Amino acid sequence: MGKLRFEITTSLDGFIAGPDPDLEHPLGVGGRELHNWVFGLKAFRERHGESGGETGPDDDLIRESFDASGAIIMGRRMFSGGSGPWEDDPNADAWWGDDPPFRVPVFVLTHHPRETMAMQGGTTFAFVTEGIEAALEQARAAAGDKDVGISGGAEVIQQYLRAGLVDEMLIHVSPVLIGQGVRLFENHLEPGRVELECTQVLASPAVTHLRYRIAK
Fold it and tell me: Which of 76, 81, 142, 175 is exposed most, by the fewest CB atoms within 10 A?
């Protein structure tokens, strides 16, 4: 059985999205700048059906992460940005079109049932209404020996951390200051609840990667 891990980009001041997200700015105002470090990497571009791109340590790390993931868990807001009944969601079919970049089964946490969506490239979206442990059970079954990744958002990551289920975190620190928005770690964790061991630090001019093992 693989690890349960999350991987996410944060600003230097701790935000994973800017303020005022909407359909035009799904990551909030200024949030897209957080990810400038990854857009030109060869592994990222391949996942999005584009050619070319840069290679090197940043690209190697992202490619390794892609290859290790056998399933993904995400929250409803990451999937579509919406809430409430699906028929009222203006972005009910999500952000990524007919060929999402995940290439593995994705389990979406939601309060509103929906049939599984089979997309191009091997991505499926299954909608889980029974909570985080049910989503993890289904994701582990789909992933086999590979890892299960939590791709966001912050609230979902915090729920899994509070439940003591996360094995590893990989945080990409972008040299950007946003000032306001959605913080990765709000004040929802008990002091001493999560014990971390740093297992990797990889820095480039574009980003610093921090990998931590979470003690059980």
Answer: 175
Domains and CATH numbers, the chain: 4-32+69-83+93-182 (3.40.430.10)
Q: Among 192, 150, 187, which Cα is nearest to 171's? A: 150
- Phi/psi zone of residue 102: left (φ > 0), alpha (ψ -120 to 50 degrees), beta? alpha
Tokens 């059970």 map to which residue? 137
What tokens does 104 get?
Answer: 């593995």
Per residue in 54-78, pLDDT tens?
A: 999 999 999 999 999 999 999 999 9
Read off φ and ψ for residue 23, nearest 5 degrees: -65, -30
Mean pLDDT, rounded, for 156-168 = 94
